[in-house]
Amino acid sequence: MTRNEFFAQLAHALQQLTESERNDILRDYQEYFIDAQQAGRSDAEIIATLGQPAQIAKQLTANRHLAAAKQQLSVGSFLKATLAVISLTIFNVGFVLGPLITIAGSILALWVVCITLVLSPAIYGIVLLFQIPVTNAGDIYTILSTYEFTPSVQQAFLQLGGFLTLIAVGCGILGCIILYYLSRLFISIFIKYMQFNVSVLQGSTQL
Amino acid sequence: MNVQFKKGVLELCVLALVAQRDRYGYELVERISRQIEIAEGTVYPLLRRLTDEGYFETYLKESTEGPPRKYYRITAHGRSTLNTLRHEWQQFATGVSTLLNEGSTHDEK
Q: Given Cys at both, which of A35, A89, A172, B10 links B26, Cβ 3.0 to 4.6 Å?
């Protein structure tokens, strides 16, 4: 972000305030940029320490509404102040955390599915070896024997089962690779979200 | 450090510095961040709030290096608040260091 972009964004985000107040705030930050520049700091450094214009504006707007609420205790001003403070802190928790948990849950569920697919030959083997009942009718051998197949057909069914698990392994591995990148993407977004939360909390001077 | 705690301390520091003499924004940021680590972005909104609440008055003064700077001057209301806060802080700091010293003498035994 350049200095001009910073000021354009800040001016835009301060639209709720009166023009004289907005100009005064912009003047303050211009002074800050000039002084910081004379102290040998680059625009990028200054912007990094100041934070996002939208956050600065939220904080200033919340302060303004709080001050107004203190001066004239009307229901309207109180509601405005409450809303401004809520938008500063809880808003993003309630409205972002919900979808976040849903997405995290879905990714976890997909991981379970893919790992199960990868492990399916082992599961198939264990089911056959220990003759674990898979339905009410009993284990796989019992089910096959009820159909009066010849031993060679039964053998073929068991082998077909084995092949199917190999296909499942392929799908599972593919799924795991996709999920790996998906999870990383999700985690990086989540971290950004947390940093955003922290900056929001640090930004609010008064609650 | 606890954010809420730091904010209270920052307010006290800003009040104390402006009480010494009239100061401008960047000067305050510089003075404070020389001693304690702060999020610089929080100082300007804080100054604005303290001005709104009647602790400070502002005036513009020509500077040799560029456009005029906004200076902050403490009001009588600001000064009395500073005295109250300073007193509270000293009690708090004394209390904490007493507790810490009790802990260290206890450990030595």
A: A35
- For A119-172, write each residue's pLDDT tens digit: 999 988 888 888 877 777 777 777 777 777 788 888 888 888 889 999 999 999
- The four Cα atoms B46, B49, B53, B57 give a dihedral, to 10 degrees, of 80
pLDDT tens, position by position, B94-104: 998 999 888 66
CB A3 within 8 A of CB A43: yes
Averaged pLDDT of chain A: 79
Burial of A176 (0-12, 13-18, 19+ CB in 10 A): middle
* Residue A68 touches partner B, C-beta closer than 8 Å: no
DSSP string, B10-52: HHHHHHHHHHHS-EEHHHHHHHHHHHS---GGGHHHHHHHHHH
In angstroms, the CA B51 to CA B4 distance is 20
Nearest to A15, CA basis, from A29, A26, A5, A4: A26
The C-alpha of B46 sits at a distance from chain A's nearest C-alpha, in angstroms, of 7
Residue whose structure tokens are 């893919």: A114
A38 three-class SS: helix
Q: Which of B14, B37, B32 has the alpha carbon at shortest distance from B86? A: B14
Could you tell me which of A33, A41, A3 has the C-alpha nearest to residue B44?
A33
Query: Tokens for B23?
Result: 């100061």
> Model-level pTM?
0.55
Both tokens assigned to A192: 């950004």
Given B25, B39, B52, which is nearest A28 (Cβ)? B25
